């Protein structure tokens, strides 16, 4: 199958993050955000989440939890209960498909957070196997500026997305109208209803790239299967090794 010229960045996003234009991490010191001139503040959390040290003038616009961070609902509450942080947060990245961190998060915990973060543009939730269609739909309803949403399981446990949320998005184009990228690894990839909902959403939102697939082993970057659908057509299909 010939690779569509516009799909390369979409497929490689799992490695480069370039498609969603994540701000680069210029320096990381422990769990503190590092501020440099003309660089947006970004916090990389590897050990503990302490936002109390950040004055409102330098609150992080992007928060990424490290691959070994045991992320739970209570940790998200730290962000949610700091309006100076949550109201400005634009990018949230958590969980990891190799370590399985993210599996303890509930849909309620995630929705409580995103409802306090109206400016979110990028939401990537890896290994969040408890998140259902209700969570996906709720995230889109809470984030009018959302451009990229990623919800994955991992190679040892599938996710809980069945397709009703994609049907909802197809029927309600006013919800998350700026959404350009939806990534759903390790969900109900081979389920007929899931595929029907995906097709309907892709046909309705012609500029939305939908990436699906399955993780084949712990080395997911090398062996996951990936399919990309755009404007109702499968434009990229790569099986696992």
From TrEMBL:
Gene3D superfamilies of this UniProt entry? Answer: Ribonuclease Inhibitor
Tell me what this protein is called. Answer: Uncharacterized protein
Question: Which species expresses this protein natively?
Answer: Cerrena zonata
């Amino acid at each position: 199958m010939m690779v569509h010229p516009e799909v390369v960045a979409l497929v490689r996003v799992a490695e480069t993050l370039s498609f969603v234009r994540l701000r680069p991490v210029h320096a990381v010191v422990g769990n503190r955000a590092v501020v440099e001139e003309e660089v947006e503040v970004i916090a990389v959390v590897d050990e503990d989440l302490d936002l109390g040290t950040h004055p409102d003038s330098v609150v992080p616009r992007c928060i990424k939890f490290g691959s070994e961070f045991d992320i739970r609902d209570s940790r998200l509450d730290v962000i949610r209960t700091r309006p100076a942080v949550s109201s400005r947060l634009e990018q949230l990245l958590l969980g990891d498909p190799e370590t399985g961190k993210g599996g303890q998060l509930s849909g309620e915990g995630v929705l409580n957070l995103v409802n306090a973060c109206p400016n979110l543009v990028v939401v990537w939730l890896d290994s969040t196997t408890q998140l259902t269609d209700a969570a996906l739909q709720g995230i889109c309803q809470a984030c009018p500026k959302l451009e990229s949403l990623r919800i994955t399981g991992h190679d040892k446990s599938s996710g809980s997305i069945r397709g009703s949320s994609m049907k909802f998005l197809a029927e309600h184009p006013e919800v998350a109208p700026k959404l350009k990228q939806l990534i759903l690894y390790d969900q109900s990839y081979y389920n007929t209803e899931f595929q029907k909902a995906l097709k309907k959403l892709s046909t309705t939102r012609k500029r939305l790239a939908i990436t699906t697939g399955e993780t084949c082993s712990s080395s997911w970057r090398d062996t996951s299967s990936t399919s990309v659908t755009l404007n109702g057509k499968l434009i990229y299909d790569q099986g696992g090794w």
